[in-house]
Design brief:
By secondary structure, the protein is an alpha/beta fold. It has a domain of 205 residues: 3-Layer(aba) Sandwich (Rossmann fold). Helix content is 40%, strand content 11%. The strands form five sheets. The protein has a three-stranded antiparallel sheet. Strands 4-5-6 form a three-stranded parallel sheet, with helices on both faces. The protein has a two-stranded parallel ribbon with strand order 7-10. Helix 3 packs across helix 10 and helix 12 runs antiparallel to helix 13.
């Protein structure tokens, strides 16, 4: 059989971690699989006795980190930034979901900080998402700025991101990552605190050893070349419909300006042992956070990423591009945190991962102004041949964690 083409720079051979259910197709982790001996292995050498870097790091969290010492470091950090006049002393970006609810509340009520929470608005709030957002303030007792960018522009960029990149969250992620440091600089706050470092879920382990965010992201050399939805900013402006000012929320602050202003961006998960399910319990008890009344399409959970009606399509597109759906992400981290077994995770992935998110489908199509046929055309165009096979008119995965793929 001829070697099948792999899109997006993905490894041509699909491998699954033996401890969780993630595969080597996860973006940003294509060379970060490690042997049981802790040796970094390239994807081409990934063998059955290997585990993913996220599982290796979890073991280090359990046995190789002195969390009492880490908490002492947190207290020392916070004492450097703690306000003496009652002004805000830490910015916490978030939506009021379980993770940001935990982060902001514990900083205020356990460690005595005065946080300002800042929210980059979802595309389309869900009812439960809006309720949790309100509870974050009214039950959790926190201050918040809800920032909603130019809706006309944001919809257009989201449309382009879906059609060109099959990544409808790309403009949202850009704004979401910028808003914390940008608001800190604007309000004269020196400390920004995110929850967990996303590297914890499978990037290079070395990234988890640094409590401070790499701010190279905030070094746009020429804003006009920034691509949003796969299209340079200058091309949007050239249409005459938008001005450069409309893009201000998407232009990263200059890294040196942030350094000169004394702004530092840290991860709470470096200092306190991070467990998403424990964050959920804490948020329920302290900020009025509520799980959804029904499970999330594409997964079995009810409490993770439930504030945006577009969110299910973000995970559906990761399934299409990388063969990794929402159930895989949820189950992998719950296996690592000993909430479920790998066998249970494999079952859940098989049952839910490929489920189509139909509940908000019409609203999604209306939001990005495309037809159902245009949606399907974009989806099928982005299926990598080494991941998908068309069998009797139906798309099927070539390889699955359950071992029942077309080519397994």
């Amino acid at each position: 059989m001829d070697k099948l083409e792999a899109y997006y720079g993905l490894p041509g051979e699909v491998k699954f971690c033996k401890k969780c259910v993630i595969s080597n197709q996860r973006p940003s982790s294509t060379v970060e699989f490690m042997s049981d001996k802790g040796e970094k292995k390239k994807v081409i050498n990934f063998t059955e006795d290997s585990v993913c870097s996220a599982c290796i790091y979890h073991e280090q969290k359990e046995t190789g980190i002195d969390w009492s010492s880490r908490e002492d470091k947190l207290k020392q950090l916070l004492s450097r930034f703690k306000s003496k006049d009652g002004s805000y002393d830490v910015v916490v970006p978030g939506s009021g979901g379980k993770d940001s609810a935990y982060t902001a509340h514990i900083l205020k009520y356990k460690y005595g900080m005065n946080p300002l929470t800042v929210t980059w608005a979802p595309h389309l709030y869900t009812d439960i998402g809006w309720k949790n957002m309100q509870n974050w303030m009214h039950v959790g007792g926190l201050d918040n700025i809800l920032y909603t960018p130019n809706g006309k522009l944001h919809r257009l960029m989201t449309r382009n991101a879906f059609l060109n990149l099959l990544h409808p969250f790309q403009p949202f992620i850009v704004g979401q990552r910028i808003i914390g440091p940008a608001m800190a600089k604007r309000f004269g706050v020196k400390l920004v605190m995110y929850g967990e470092n996303q590297a914890e879920y499978g990037n290079a382990i070395e990234e988890n050893r640094n409590p401070i965010m790499d701010m190279d992201f905030f070094s746009a050399e020429d804003a006009m070349d920034i691509k949003l939805g796969g299209i340079p900013m200058q091309d949007y402006i050239a249409t005459g419909e938008f001005q450069k000012d409309d893009f201000a929320p998407y232009i990263p602050p200059n890294k040196q300006d942030l350094i000169d202003a004394g702004v530092e961006v840290h991860y709470l998960g470096y200092y306190l042992k991070w467990d998403p399910q424990e964050c959920y319990y804490y948020a329920v008890e302290n900020t009025g956070f509520q799980a959804n009344t029904e499970r999330t399409e594409g997964s079995y959970s009810k409490y993770s990423s439930i504030d945006d009606k577009i969110d299910p399509f973000h995970y559906y597109t990761t399934l299409i591009k990388f063969g990794i759906g929402r159930a895989t992400y949820d189950a992998a981290q719950e296996v690592r945190n000993d909430k479920i077994t790998r066998e249970e995770a494999v079952y859940l992935v098989k049952k839910y991962d490929a489920e189509f998110p139909g509940k908000f489908f019409k609203e999604f199509l209306e939001y990005i102004d495309i037809t159902e046929s245009e949606f399907q055309e974009a989806v099928d165009k982005h299926r990598s041949p080494h991941i998908w096979a068309l069998v009797d008119g139906e798309w099927k995965l070539r390889h699955t964690v359950a071992g029942d793929g077309v080519d397994d």
